[in-house]
From TrEMBL:
InterPro entries: ASB_dom_sf (IPR029009), Fe-S_L-Ser (IPR051318), Fe-S_L-Ser_mono (IPR004644), Ser_deHydtase-like_asu (IPR005130), Ser_deHydtase_bsu (IPR005131). Its EC number is 4.3.1.17. Its cofactor is [4Fe-4S] cluster. It comes from Streptomyces globosus. Keywords: 4Fe-4S, Gluconeogenesis, Iron, Iron-sulfur, Lyase, Metal-binding. It holds the Pfam family SDH_beta. Pathway: Carbohydrate biosynthesis; gluconeogenesis. One of its GO terms (biological process) is gluconeogenesis. Residues 192-454 form the Serine dehydratase-like alpha subunit domain. GO terms for molecular function: 4 iron, 4 sulfur cluster binding; L-serine ammonia-lyase activity; metal ion binding. Belongs to the iron-sulfur dependent L-serine dehydratase family. Residues 4-162 form the Serine dehydratase beta chain domain. This is L-serine dehydratase.
Amino acid sequence: MAISVFDLFSIGIGPSSSHTVGPMRAARMFVNRLKKDGLLAQTASVRAELYGSLGATGHGHGTPKAVLLGLEGHSPRTVDVETADDEVERIRSTGRLRLLGTEIGSAHEIAFDEPNQLVLHRRRSLPYHANGMTLFAYDAAGTPLLEKTYYSVGGGFVVDEDAVGEDRIKLDDTVLKYPFRSGDEMLRLAKETGLSISSLMLENEKAWRTEEEIREGLLEIWRVMQACVSRGMSREGILPGGLRVKRRAAATARQLRTEGDPMMHRSEWTTIYAMAVNEENAAGGRVVTAPTNGAAGVLPAVLHYYVNFVPGADEDGVVRFLLAAGAIGMLFKENASISGAEVGCQGEVGSACSMAAGALAEVLGGTPEQVENAAEIGMEHNLGLTCDPVGGLVQIPCIERNGMAAVKAVTAAKMAMRGDGSHKVSLDKVIKTMKETGADMKIKYKETARGGLAVNVIEC
């Protein structure tokens, strides 16, 4: 199985990769399947049923909105975040849904009664994964035309029922030049070839794209990250969702700008960069899934730290940073999980912290062993992190948590750079521990909004 860095870093819409990006992709896959099978014109009604974490926290994560947009043919990468709410309001006010409405010549309008045809099961789950959804299509006589079940397995990745039992991700049998599925294999290849972690990943990426395409694609991801930070540091007000959480990044940035040399406040700036991204994510803005939306602020923040505070930083370093981060993220995706609904927030913010720590060590000139050590430190000190979003919203504790993890990633990289790369706990062992910890974690602490802060804050 092969995973590209562009699978891990995708441009999408907030507030959640599992609950917004994944369901939008699944709904779009469903209507495209109707079209492919010649069933679209016969479809008179559709129904969507959401289970597990999608059902429990779907409203707070914007899942119904995502499903409606997906059924109309919108993609997370290209949907207009400024008009998306208006599109959903049109569907709800008219009771009409334009299946594949974004495609000229394919749009098919049907009646749609959201309260009865988009059902969130708060206490029911499907067997394969906590984020499951089933979609149905019927003709005018009520005869079933198509039924498909999809699972949003983290980071915007979606598998359908046909892939269940095969693997977590749709299998890609692309032959890579330097395939590795563990940290030990990654280090062995680096030693045998003399290549850095980012160079190993670059050689593997060439199985899909030219070096020029890889570079331009990664720099486009960086530009989207920069734009997200910029927007987050310029917008103020109250975040949607009912908790009345106030945006803080813009006001804090203004304060810091009056306090002199930014180098004296590097940690605070790093925190603000992350919070700016996650405030944008909470508002349904354009973000880069890195590796999830709930953890989308960590890598952009640490990459901003590199560009703004590391002498000699350049675009080559940005590319190497993202490649190294992708190599580490791939290990988490293949050997554990990046889904908060499956393993808690250790799989989201913890994985992002590990990826950012290793990537920063890479561009600071670290050896492959130091990069692996930094990634291990970043994950080790996020083990057991629960996912208990208050009100089911990606706001408390998610926004601050990204800021904390970004600073922790910088610290982890610097700790690793002070050593020679040798350490007692390997990255592979900490990934295995994270997976086992997630399996042992009570379900109420895994993105259900039924435990931890989600309960105690409301009770107070």
